[in-house]
Amino acid sequence: MTRGGAEGEVFDLLVVGAGPTGLACAIEAQKAGFKAVLVDKGCICNSLFHYPSHMTFFTTSELLEIGDIPFPSPNAKPTRNEALQYYRQVAAHYKLDVRQFLRVERVTGADGDFAVHMVDRFARHSELKARKLAIATGYYDLPNMMGIPGENLSKVHHYYDDPHPYFGLDVAVVGGKNSAAIAALELWRHGARVTLVHRDPELHRHVKYWIKPDIENRIKAGEIKAYFNSHLAEVTPDSVVLKTPDGIKSLKNDFVFAMTGYHPDFAFLEGLGVRSEGSDKLPVYNPETLESNVPGIYLAGVIVAGSRTNEIFIENGRFHGRQIARGLAVALASGGQSV
Fold first, then answer.
1. Which of 8, 45, 67, 220 falls 20 to 30 Å from 247 in CA-CA distance?
2. Both 63 and 167 in a single domain?
3. How sure is the predictor about 7, in pLDDT bands with cuts at 50, 70 and 90?
4. Comparing C-alpha atoms, which of 152, 107, 36, 91 is closest to residue 271?
C-alpha cells in the first residue's frame, strides 16, 4: 500500500470505507486508469477485523475475491484471519493508497471538486481533494440499540468476539439470527451459563441449516435456557429483567450480548445530501452507475439497500466497483461532470 501524495493533489476518486467493497472500488478505478485513494476511520477491512476472532464465513473463498486475485484457502469456507490476510495482500498487490484511522467529518464542494475533511486519532485535521466520491461505509459500526435502562453498562456488548472470558459466568444473548445463535453455542461450549432471549416465537428461519438444529437441540436439552416471545426490559450490574409471556422475570447475570443487528450511517449520508425513500431508507441512486441523487457521489456495498442489510454482502457488493468505474469513465470523459 502507498500513502502520501503531493500537497494539493486531486484524486479522480476518493473512496470512504476500506472494506472489501471499498477496496474493489479503488481497484476497478485504478484499472480503468483513474487515480484513487481510500479513507477509513479504522484499519483496512475494519469491520472484518472486529468479527469474532474464530469466525468462519458462510460462503466460499471464490465468492469473496476482488480484483481478479484468487483467494486460496485449504478450507471449504475461509476463516476471518484468512480473509484479512487475503485483503491485505490484494491491497499490497495493487499498491492501493489507503489512509487508515482517519474519520471523515464532512464533505464540501461539488461534483468535480470535492473536499473531504478528516480528523485523525490525535484530533489533527486534514483534507483531500477529489473529483468523485464513492461511499462504501458498510453498516457494522452502528448497532441497533435496545433502548432500555442499563444498556450503557460496561457488561453489555453489541459485538461478540471470544468466549474465553465468560467461562463459568451467567451470560444473556439477545437475538434469534445467526450471530445470536453462534454466540450462544460458542459461549455454552466454553463453559458459560447461557440464556437466549428472542422477541419472536422461534429462531429466525434464515439461521444457517447446520447451526439451527444444533442450538435447537441444546435448548431442548436444557443446556441453553431460551425465552421466546420475550425481550430485555432492563439491565442491572448483577441481573437482567425480562418481559416474558409468563410475566416479569429477573435473572442473575454477568454479561449481555445484544446481537440485535446493525445499520448504515444514515446521518452521514443525509449530511452529504443523499436522499432516502420509504421506511427502509433506501437511498436514491442510478442502478446502472450507482451514482446517488448528489452528482459525483456514488454508493457501494450494503448501504445501497438502506436498512435491508441482509440483501447485500461481500459476494455481490464486490461487483459495485466495476459499475462505478464505468460511470466514472463516462463522467470524466465528458469533462468531469456527471451526465
1. 220
2. no
3. low
4. 107
